[in-house]
Design brief:
This protein is 55% helix and 14% strand. The protein has 181 residues and is an alpha+beta fold. The model has no long low-confidence stretch (mean pLDDT 81).
Length: 181
């Protein structure tokens, strides 16, 4: 076997495969490219995005981000309001338990959140929790077995007031003395 026939028999399958690959790539090349190498040169000459296009995309992303942040802020405010109302209703339940145990809400008339039922550990914890979410708490109670109480929270998250009292009322109202309005 001669050297030429050895080369031809050894590398012929590789050359056939190489030719098939080149023909396939030429078939895929754009119509303006005459050879595969023209296609490669055309590919390198493509331009990227213009500055205007990039700025428009950045502006759109900024607008979308501001819309998302505004809706999240609204959800946060509603969450705070729900937390305050839940704590207020918890105070109402704890006050009923306090009355069952002590037969009174207070031993004297109270206009602060201390003494009587407002010294109960569970009510103090609920007052502190409501205060930590940004609410201002106002407490009132009257003495004796026929006494009464009201607890009012005011907050921007609530959009005003939320009041609970000894009659079972729990509503968006302010309090006057030991009753919700």
């Amino acid at each position: 076997m001669t050297f030429d026939s050895f080369l031809l028999s050894t590398f012929a399958p590789c050359l056939i495969l190489y030719g098939a690959i080149i023909r396939t790539l030429q078939d895929c090349a754009p119509s303006g490219a005459k050879k595969f190498t023209d296609f490669i040169i055309m590919k390198k000459g493509l331009k990227g995005f213009t500055l205007i296009e990039l700025l428009v995309v950045i502006a759109i992303i900024g607008i979308l981000a501001s819309v998302v942040l505004a809706s999240l802020n609204s959800a946060r405010s509603k969450g705070q309001a729900a937390s305050i109302k839940a704590n207020m209703k918890n105070m109402q339940s704890q006050a009923a338990l306090y009355y069952d145990t002590n037969n009174a809400y207070a031993t004297s008339t109270l206009s602060t959140c201390s003494g009587g039922l407002f010294s109960d550990a569970n009510i103090v914890a609920a007052i502190n929790q409501a205060s930590s979410t940004g609410a201002t708490i106002v407490c009132n109670a009257t003495a004796g077995a026929s006494g009464a109480y009201s607890i009012m929270a005011s907050s921007t998250a609530l959009g005003g007031y939320f009041c609970v009292d000894s009659t079972g009322k729990a509503s968006n109202a302010s309090n006057t003395g030991a009753a919700c309005n």
